[in-house]
Amino acid sequence: MVTKKIAVLFSGSGTNLENLFLKIHDRVFNGTKIEIVLTICNKEEALGIAKSCKYGVEPVILKHSDYPQRADFDKKLVEIIKSYEIDLCVLAGFMRILTPYFTRNVKAINIHPSLLPLFKGADAIRQSYVAKAKEAGASVHFVNEELDGGEVIAQKSFTCKENMSYEEYEANIHEIEYEILPKTVISILSS
Ligand code: GRF
Known about the structure:
This protein is α/β, with parallel strands linked by helices. The chain has 6 helices and 8 strands; from the N terminus they run βαββαβαβαβαββα. Helices cover 36% and strands 26% of the residues. The model has no long low-confidence stretch (mean pLDDT 96). Bound molecules: 5-O-phosphono-beta-D-ribofuranosylamine.
């Protein structure tokens, strides 16, 4: 059987990371086994660290604050990822802008909580909520040198109800993330 290895990078609560462990880790899809072999976090206080450990993968903690030059941080990141010979890198709430050195060397996808190309960058959920868009959702895209600007691979939306609370709005977006991110990883690696 073919085994495909992925790395997941995160910075925060790690709910998308946990969802990937639950839905795709160590499972076989169309004759391809997918394994999360590496997780990397750039914040030592991130709640996602404990989640990763729970599934048997102790994250590599790579603090960007230890690297005054962005390029040096990215070099280290690439070096670690290459050493695991991974097939795909998944950015799941990894709050760092990556340099072309990273994007040229690593095949990576990112989950973003908006209907790209709308609302790129941080705080996309709040921005789209405030803008009172009729449709909202999430996107998975390839990572390139432009922030949230790579080719969109998957997207799903919902129609916003009138007077929808922020909490409900945010929860709907996360539900979509938990659906489309694992599906996209499976379709990239097992088709
Ligand atoms: C998600 O909403 C993701 O789209 C964004 O950051 C958030 C990460 O949440 N890039 P979590 O750490 O997976 O809970």
